[in-house]
C-alpha cells in the first residue's frame, strides 16, 4: 500500500474534517442574519408568524452551531497533530490571524448564543435582538478572519522568509491580499444561498405534508426570494473570482478548464475525462472557444495550459486535473440548477399570486402558485448549497496543490511523521462518527419539520398561546 | 520567576505563557463543571436530567471556547511546542476530540430528536463527557511524566485520567448544589462528598509524583528560602478541603443560603493545584525539553496578538459574566423563549 502513505492519509483526514466542519458554518453564517431578519420583522409587525419562524429555525441554528463548534475544535488540534510544519513555517502570519478569529469572533458567538437561544423571556426585547445581531455579526467576522488566512495561502504577500521561516512585513498587505475580497464575497454568498435553499426546501416539505400556516408561507417566500436574488450575484462573483485566479494561480484555471496546451480558441468543456498519464482528455464534449470567451472575453483569447507547469524532470507542478476539473463542474452545475429552480419558483408564485387562499389584497407572491413538481424539486435542493460549497472548496483547495502556501511551502513539507496505520485508524473512526452525525442531523431536521407540520410545535401552537407561547423546547416529550 | 520587562523577547513569551495558563485554568474550572455534570448524568432520573442539562445549557458553548483559546495560544505563541506536544499525544487528543464531539452534539440532539432516540443521545452525552475527561487527565499524566511513553508512565497517566474525571464530577456536583434544589440538590451533595476524596487523592498523587520525576522540580520546591514562599500553597489547600468537607456535611443551610460556596471553594482549590503544577514546570512548555523562550514565535507577531488581546479579553470576560448573570438562579428545564 505504497500509495496510502502518511501524507495522503493525513490529507484525506484533514479534508474529511474540514469538509464536515464547513457544512455547519455555511449554515450558521447566513442563518444568523436570517434569524435576525425574522426577529426584527416580529419586533416591527408584532405578527406571530415571524416569531414562529424564528423559533423553528433557532433550533436548527443551535444544532448547527454545536456541530460547528465541536468540529472546529477538532480543526485547531489537527494543525498540531498532523501538520506541525505549517505553523513552524508560517506561524508568524497564520498565528495572529487565527488568534484574532478566536478572540474577536468565536467568543462573541459562543457567549451570546446562550442568550439568543434561551433568553427570550429572560431579557428585554432589545437585548434579545442585540444578542441575535451579535451572533450573526460574530459568525461573519469569524468567516472574515478564516478567509483572510485561507486566501493568504493562495495569494501570499506582505511577508519575508528568513532562515526558512515567514515573518510579516505588512499586515495590511497580508489581510488585504489580492484574492481575499473575492473569496470572502463568494463564501458569504454561498452561505446565504445554502440557507435560502434550506429554508425553502424545509418549508416546501412542510407544505407538502399539508401545513398551510402563515409562517410556512412566509418562510417559503423568504427562502425562494433570497435565492432568486442572490444566485445571479453569486454567478457574477464566481466569474470575478475566476479571473482573479487566472491572474495569480493560472495552473488552477488550466486544471479547471482541463486545458493542456496554452493557446487561443480554447473550448469550454462540458464533459471530459482528463488523463494525466497521457496528458490529454478523453471523450471531450465542448463548446468551441467557450473557455477563451469566458476568461478573456474574446474567441482568440489565450488560455494557459497545464503543460506549462511541468518541471524539467517531468514532475507536474500543477494540481491533480481530474478532481479539480470535476469539482468545478459539480459546483457550476449545482449553481445552474439553483438559478433555474429559484427563478421558476419565483415566477410561478408571482404570476399566480391571485391563487392565494385568503385572497387578501396586496399579496405579491402566492405559495399556491407553485406546481407540485416544483415543490417536490425544492425538497432535495434543501442541501444543494452544501454540494456547491464543498465542490467549490475542493476546486480551490485541490487546485492549490502541490502547494500548501502558494510558492512558499508544499503540503508535503508540513506533514507530521505519524505512523500511517495510526492516521488510517483515526481516519476511519472520524469518518464513522461524521457519517452517523450527518445522518442524525438531516434526520432531526426532517423530524422537526414533520412535527411542525403536524402543528405540535411552534406553528399552530404559538398562535393559540399568543404572547407568551409555551413552545415545546429542549424536552418535547415532557 | 519574573522576566525582564525592558526586553520584549523576554517578557512577551512570559506574558503569553501566563495568558495561556490562565485560559487553561478557566477552561478546567468552567468546562470542568459541565463535563462533570455529564459524567454524573446517569446517576439522576429523567426529570432531574433535564434540569441538569438546564443548569449548563446556556454556558457550555462559551466554556469550551476557552479550550480553543488555550490551544490557539499554544499554536500561535509557541508553534514549536504545539507540534511537539500534540504529535506526541496523537491518540489521547483524538479520543478527547471524539468525546467533545459526541457530548456537544448529543446535548443538542437529545432535545430535538424523537423520543425513542433520546435515551441513546443521553448515553452518548455521558460517554462523550467521560471520554473527554479521561483523555484530558491522561494527557496531563503523560505531560507530568515529561511526555515519556513507557508502561509505567502509561499507568500513571491512566491514574490521572481517572482522578481528573472524578475531579470534574466533584466540581460538577458543587455546581449542581448551587443550581438545583430539593432531592436533586441532596443527591448532588452526596456526589460531592464522595468525589471529594477522589480529588484529595488525585492532588496528593500528583503532588508527590511530580518532584520524584524530575530533580529540577524537586529542587524548586524543597530548597530554602523558596519553601517558605511555597508553604501556604499546600496549607491553604488543606484548609480549603477541610472547609469544603464541613460545608458539604451540613448543607443545605437554612433557606438554601450560601449554596454557591462549595463551587467557589472548589474553583479556588483547582486554581491552587494548578498554580502548583505551573510553578513546577515553569519555564518549560515541553517538560525538560523546550522552554517558553525557545518555543516562542517572533516578538513582532506576538505583539500584534497581545495588543488585540488587551482590548478583547476584558470584553470577553465582561460578556461572559453577563451571560452568567442573566442565567443566574436555580436551573429550570430549558426553553427556547
TrEMBL record, chain A:
The keyword Heme applies. GO terms for cellular component: cytochrome complex; plasma membrane. It holds the Pfam family Cyt_bd_oxida_I. The chain crosses the membrane at residues 20-44, 56-77, 97-119, 126-148, 187-209, 218-237, 326-351, 374-394, 427-449. It is a multi-pass membrane protein. Keywords: Cell membrane, Electron transport, Heme, Iron, Membrane, Metal-binding, Transmembrane, Transmembrane helix, Transport. One of its GO terms (biological process) is aerobic electron transport chain. This is Cytochrome D ubiquinol oxidase subunit I. It comes from Pseudoponticoccus marisrubri.
TrEMBL record, chain B:
It is a multi-pass membrane protein. GO terms for biological process: aerobic electron transport chain. One of its GO terms (cellular component) is cytochrome complex. It is found in: Cell membrane. One of its GO terms (molecular function) is oxidoreductase activity, acting on diphenols and related substances as donors, oxygen as acceptor. The chain crosses the membrane at residues 12-44, 65-83, 89-109, 121-148, 154-177, 189-207, 227-248, 260-282, 302-327. The keyword Cytoplasm does not apply. Keywords: Cell membrane, Membrane, Transmembrane, Transmembrane helix. Belongs to the cytochrome ubiquinol oxidase subunit 2 family. PANTHER family: BLR3729 PROTEIN (PTHR43141:SF2), CYTOCHROME BD2 SUBUNIT II (PTHR43141). This is Cytochrome BD ubiquinol oxidase subunit II. It comes from Pseudoponticoccus marisrubri.
